[in-house]
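Lecture 7 notes. Example A: sequence first, then its C-alpha cells.
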Amino acid sequence: MGHQTVTWDRPSADCPVEVALAAISGRWATLVLRDLMHGPRSFSALRAGLPSLSAKVLTERLESLVAQGLVSCSRSPGFPVRTSYALTSAGLLLRPLLVELYRTGEALLGELPDH
C-alpha cells in the first residue's frame, strides 16, 4: 500500500497546525504567554511587564487563554485577594513554538528588503 497524503481545502478545527496557531493568535497573546514562560505572574506584574497593554485587553487575553486551557488562574484567600496566572502543561508546550517563531522572525527581518 502506498503513502496517502491528507489534504484540506480549508482550515479544519482538528488540524494540528490550526490548533497551534489558534493557541497563539490574538493581539498580545504571544507576549502574555512569553511573560508567563518565566513562571506564575500576578495581574499587576503582567501589566507592569506590558505597559502599553490596557487592563481591559489584558483581562480579555487572560480570559481567552484560560478558556483555551493554556493558562490557569488561582486566587489566594484573604484581603486583598491575590490573583496569579500560570501556564498549564498545555501552555508549556508552546515554548518551542514561540522560540522558533522568534528565531524565524529575526531571520526574516535580516532578509526582507525594508529592514
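Example B, a different protein, same format:
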Amino acid sequence: MGEFAGKIVVVTGGSKGIGESIVRRFWKAGARCVIVSRHPDEYQVLADELKAAGMTVNVLACDVRKVVQIKNLVADTVKQSCRRRFVPGFIKS
C-alpha cells in the first residue's frame, strides 16, 4: 500500500486544477480523500469519475472563508472517519 494508506486527506479547492491533481496524487498514495469546494456541481463530476475508478471519496460543500463551515467540515470528517468507513458522496451545504 502507499505511504498514505489508512489516512484521510481533506483537499480544499479539490474539484479542479491543482486541487484535483492533489486529490489524484493522494489517492495513488493510498489516502481516502474529502474533496472540498464551494461548487457542488464541479466536485460531483470529479467525485463520480473517481468513484467509477474505484476511489473512496467524499465530497463536501464548504466556503473556507466562513468559520462555521470550516467547523462543520472538521466535525463531519471526524464523524465519518470514526465510523471506520466513508459513505461515498455524503454532501452537506
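Note on Example B: The longest strand covers residues 32-37. The two ends are 33 Å apart (CA to CA).
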